[in-house]
Amino acid sequence: NHYIVCGYGRMGRQIAADLKARDEKFVIVDAEEELEERLIELQLPYVIGDATHDDVLIEAGIKRARGLVAALTNDPANVLTVLSARELKPDIFIIARVTRMETESKLRVAGANRVINPYQIGGHRMALTLLRPVVHDFLDQIFHFGEGRNIDIGQIIVHEKSTLAGQTIGSSDLRSEHQVNILGIRKANDSLVITPNPNERIELDDTLIVIGPPEAIYMLERQNLVIDDEDDEI
Amino acid sequence: NHYIVCGYGRMGRQIAADLKARDEKFVIVDAEEELEERLIELQLPYVIGDATHDDVLIEAGIKRARGLVAALTNDPANVLTVLSARELKPDIFIIARVTRMETESKLRVAGANRVINPYQIGGHRMALTLLRPVVHDFLDQIFHFGEGRNIDIGQIIVHEKSTLAGQTIGSSDLRSEHQVNILGIRKANDSLVITPNPNERIELDDTLIVIGPPEAIYMLERQNLVIDDEDDEI
Ligand SMILES: [Ca+2]
Ligand SMILES: [Ca+2]
Prior knowledge:
four-stranded antiparallel β-sheet, 9 helices, binds calcium ion, alpha/beta, homodimer, disordered C terminus
């Protein structure tokens, strides 16, 4: 029930730091032997090896892993890693980094559930910062994981046993009790309600996108187990 | 009153696309002569030349520019571009891309108002997507500028002449009239109120971080001119 982070380059390091700040269990996979000393120093679990190889992924515990990130620096290696991971564990949640736009669809065919292009995300953010710097500062504060962070964003899945189902947002204790606010709701039919009204009703199988104090969000997420919808699974 | 985008690489292209989607005026600066044909085809204004050179920035109209993005692929070139731009136009708003973390402070000393590291932002996003994919989908929908977008995020500065000053959030017509919601408020003393209560009072010099239909947000922003605070200026 851990995560596997393939590639400990610039992005891999940030991913590992974020997972550690959230107390998530993970293993780093990187072929570079010279990283070993540093990883031991940081007390991060690792496997030195090529993430595109089945035996390396097996050594990293893919059979019992919950999710995998393919964050290698070149697209072909990420495609092959995704194919290997999907074959070894059909129901694992896979995220892949992409550099060339045209590789995105290929990564999805290979089995990635989500594909992230750092240049696209970075470009969006630079344009936003140019036009609306205060919005950038706001996002920076929310997404800067780590010490002293007093705000986080989370997803709460409304299961059968959840006391939230059937209530309106205003009648729920999310805001009054937990200082947690709903930014959006993804409905069971995949439509998205953005900044819903207080009189909007919370329904079974809704996913609430929330913002608020980290402890309150983690507690609510634990009460409403974070699972992924089935429609992206291979 | 235009923007200058230095570097038409992977990030520069995304920045140009986003600015175009928002009908903002801009000029691209890149030293690569082979880009010329493509830029003409896309009908994008450009200057072929080295952005670290004063004469090239002057040709791009820096004296009357509102903001500049240094999105070149190497850090030293971005530092020099920022220094040149800051010297040529002391009050311009400057954003710089950085690759190595340690260059960030140097870019700030050189005169950048904000510094963006695509690997850091991409890494944050990958970790978030791994743990909370629905939040990623939500952000993707908000920040994917372009055709068919029905939601945007904006910043509204509450000036003396604004009718918002003195009202509570609940009593203002932001939500009831414009379907615009307040995600946060940056107060005049730089503190941040996140997802404020409906009874929170809007004050003079607040900056409201809002989410809602693009047309409503642009209209409200135009009514409340988007300017930057003075404390980051050199
Ligand atoms: Ca899925
Ligand atoms: Ca400023």
